[in-house]
Amino acid sequence: MDNARGLYLEGIRDGRAREALDRYTGDRYTQHSTGVADGKEGFLAFFEPFLARNPRRDIEVVRAIEDGRYVFLHVQQTLGGTTHWVTADLFDTDDDARIVEHWDTITPGGLTSPSGHTQTDGATEVADLDRTDENKQKVAGFVSAVLQDGRIERAAEFISRESYVQHSPEVADGIDGFTAYVGRLTAEGERLTYTKVHRLIGQGNFVVTLSEVDQAGTPMAVFDIFRLRDGLIVEHWDVADPVPSPAEANNSGKF
Fold first, then answer.
1. φ, ψ for residue 53 (rounded to 5)?
2. Residue 218: CB atoms within 10 Å
3. In the chain, what is the straight-line distance between the N-terminal and C-terminal CA atoms, in Å?
4. Co-location of 194 and 136 in the same domain
């Protein structure tokens, strides 16, 4: 986890990209971030001009979880004091914990949900480490039954009826807020269809998925972050990004 934080904070926030790459990446660096080519030189070709364009960079890692070789970071960024972004970053590491592959999504920040929550506030503490596998299975079941198969009537098997805090800007709190949102999308022909889950990782009470999603014909890459308590989902954040064309990707693609 320290290497992922170091690459992000030292390399991008502090502007020491080359030094951070040498310190924290492994023998290869396979890249899935839009516009960034593979390898250290691909990273530098993108980020050296980015750092020059954005001399003021406020970056905070809000959440971090680790599952074996995978590290996930939930990050908020402010560029120039005015432009806000939220990113979700997943890193694969080698046997020495050095970074060898990276996936991300990014979305405009500074938004609030209908219930008044920001895109990044809420619980951050990792707990219930003994329930990691159970919680991963619960989220896998939710994604399969509700998000992929569309069985919205089964939502209460996975989401707490007592407390469900929602940080997605268009969704209100509670299981009723979630079902109302899905119903509205369906009625408007904008339904989100989860076609494939590419990664599912977890640590204790937090589980993260990276999914390929069809949003009314537009392919999206979506990171969903779930917090669970007593075997049910009680909090949710997401970061979604359109899947680029091969020319825009400049690498092997979003997944």
1. -75, -30
2. 11
3. 21
4. yes
Q: Which domain holds residue 8?
A: 2-110
Smallest Cα–Cα separation from 167: which of 238, 66, 245? 238
Taking the C-alpha atoms of residue 21 and residue 35, their distance in angstroms, rounded to an integer, is: 18
Q: What is the C-alpha to C-alpha distance for residues 204 and 123, in angstroms, rounded to an integer?
A: 13
Distance of alpha carbon 114 from the chain centroid: 21
Which of 98, 102, 96, 95 is closest to 23 using CA atoms? 98
Do 149 and 192 sit in the same domain of this protein? Answer: yes
What total of structural domains would you count in the chain? 2
pLDDT digits (tens, 9 = 90+) for 67-103: 999 999 999 999 999 999 999 999 999 999 999 999 9
Q: What is the pTM of this model?
A: 0.96
pLDDT single digits (tens) 97-125: 999 999 999 999 999 999 999 999 999 99
E-only strand ranges, 139-243: 165-166, 192-203, 206-215, 218-229, 232-242
CA–CA separation, 186 vs 53, rounded Å?
Answer: 41
